[in-house]
Every structure is written in structure tokens, then in C-alpha cells.
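Subject: two folds for Thursday's group meeting

Dear M.,

Sorry for the delay on this. The cluster queue was jammed most of the week, so I only got both jobs back this morning. I'm pasting them in the order they finished. Each block is the input sequence followed by the predicted C-alpha cells. Could you check whether the formatting survives your parser before we put anything on slides? The first protein is the one we discussed after the seminar.
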Amino acid sequence: MAADADRFERVYQAHHRSVLGYLLRRTDEQTAEDVLSETFLVAWRRLGRVPADDPLPWLLGVARRALANQRRATARQDALRERVAAHAAAVVEHDAVRTAVVVEAMRALGERDREILALHAWEDLPAERIAEVLGCTRAAARLRLHRARKRLARAMLDLGVEEA
């Protein structure tokens, strides 16, 4: 094992600058450093396959393939980011349109309906607590909330939205 470590150290010392130079002419510094590390990791793992007489071409071949793998991975990551960004933009646009429709539908409602819907949706109050705020019975609050929701759904249908 010590002989393998010594051989690897000699290969590394003799060729790491050449491999790094090769990589720097093809990519940015950070990627070159990453691929250099990967190249010598492969060399360590496959030390028995590293040519004894001139390991540089073998190392450059490993570096070339590792760099190609890195570029493919980056391209996949970029494509994924673009798909996620496009999806997120569509969701945001959909939500913005939906919010605008809800605001418009709320404007079409009477003050009492807007009040009870706001208490329920924005203040997060159940019908029992809404009854306390409005000074009515729980049954009356539930009925008013139910009717206000129906009127909101109708107003949204009038604006072209199928579900409230």
C-alpha cells in the first residue's frame, strides 16, 4: 500500500500542473479545480491501470471525460432550473390572475358579504367566532357565511372563473 501511495504521489507531482493547465484552457478555474480533483481520484482508484511510462495522456483522457460529465450535469441542472422557473412563473401568473378575479368578485358583493368573508378568510375566524364579532347567533353566522360564499362563487362565475 505504501508503494501505491508513493507511486500516486509521484504521478500527481509530475502531472497535476499539466492536467490543470489543460482544464483551465477549457473551463473556468473552479470547475477546473473540481475536475482536477476528480481526475486524480480516478487515478488513485485505478492506479493499476495508469500507464507507468507516460501517464499524462491517460490522465488527460480521464480529465476530458470528467469535464464532459461535468458539463452534461451542469446542462441538466440548468434545464431543470429553467423548467422550475417557467413553472413557478406560470403559477405566479395564474395566482395573480385568480387574485385579481377574487378582488373583482369581492367588489361586486355587498358590504355584509365582504365583511363576513373577510372575517373568515383573512382573520381566520370560524363561524362561531364570527357570531361573536357580528353579535348574532352561531346559526345565523353560519348561514350568512354560507350565503356569502355562494354569492362570491356566483360573482366569480360571472367573471369567467369556474371554481371559487
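Second protein, same layout:
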Amino acid sequence: MSALIPTPNEALTVPEVMAALRLSRFKVYDLIRSGEIRSFTIGRARRVPATEIPAYIRKRMEDND
């Protein structure tokens, strides 16, 4: 990934989500399992739509208000 902030049409890998949110692999998979971050698979590859990153951050900010 060339930029830290992904473009909306990208599908991110788990390591890219980890870098964007500064979280561990375990925490990213935990967020996926809980449904807080939506994802999909292509074969065995897990991908997260780039739009999920700002949506997750917005939701967390609203929860703190």
C-alpha cells in the first residue's frame, strides 16, 4: 500500500488494516469476528473494504461522545 490512508475502492489485507489502525493482528481478527469491521474472502484470502476503516473510526468516535 503506497499511502497510509487507502482509497475507497481498495480491498485491504489484514496487515494493511493493522497498519492503518495501528492494531495487532489478533485485534483486527477480533474486530472482524465480532462484526465491527466487515470483511470478505476470496479463496483463502481475507480482505477488508477500505471504506470500513473510516467507518470504524467514526463509529468509535460517536461511541465516545
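Two things I noticed about the second structure. Residues 11-63 form one domain. The chain has a mean pLDDT of 90.

Cheers,
T.
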